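WARN retry 2 of 3 for item q-0093 after timeout on previous attempt; input resubmitted unchanged.
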Amino acid sequence: MSELQSSNPEIKFKQFDKALEESHLFPLTATGIEVFQINFGRLCNQACLHCHVEAGPNRTEIISREVLESCLRVLRESDIPTVDITGGAPEMNPHFDWFVNEVCKLNRHVLVRCNLTILLETGYEHLPQFYAGHKIEVVASLPYYSERFVDNQRGRGTFDKSIKALQLLNQVGYGEEESGLVLDLVYNPNGAFLPPPQSSIEADFKRELWRRYGVRFNHLFTITNMPIGRFRHFLERSGNYESYIQRLIDAYNPQAAAGVMCRYTLSVGWDGTLYDCDFNQMLKMNCDHGAPNHIHNFSFEQLKNRQIVTGMHCFGCTAGAGSSCGGAVAE
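OK item q-0093 returned
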């Protein structure tokens, strides 16, 4: 039973599996493994209010060289096309550069989820050129195109640093259509509501970031804030937890449910435990239903069609246009 289901037993929310049954999607199963997502740990130079990972400068959980070696073995023995590196700030892991080099030798598409401000920290100044040299897709967190909004969510001074980091990435070719260097931004709402339509807010971001700061990027991903981690604590403190959960339930979209990221993604925790998604990872809901639950026991055949472990939080990925690490999943 997930954290969300057990914390308020007196509230009888509609269960996610029942919604799947009504949509003829139960049990929810994987359709393959197209994305191998690796969480490098919870160490981060920031401590954002909406962070479901609850990452920060004082966290000590980081992925080991041994686990990363196992990840490389899995990649060598399979044809999984995309490696998605996340954190915390994954760049702070001492094995980061080495691992990216090794994955690129395997000719896999690599994307890194970057908080932008890490690019300005001492010891990480090489990263824009390093990313460009390896043609890494950079997925960067920028909650909005205004200073007040961003600093409220991510800390004072974060916006200015983020803009400077984006300009550095632009200088090495990121965001230019002809360069092949892809720079995507991630938008999270700053409150207990769903994100607006992805296409419309992407147009706003492109217009305003170019007009105000001369910044270019390729795509904007809208991601629904999941009611776990620090965002859950915010909802509880503000008295919005129950109403937010109900808002997600009421916005359930079968089309979004059919395209959720867990159906084609496998998530590896910093300790090597396997999860259906990064959100399950934070709730310690590992792969189950007979599928291997650790990288050392990896079996592509058993995991590619596994049954997904679900909970109330899954309504966050299926509300409205849906939400995934790649943004909205439905029109």
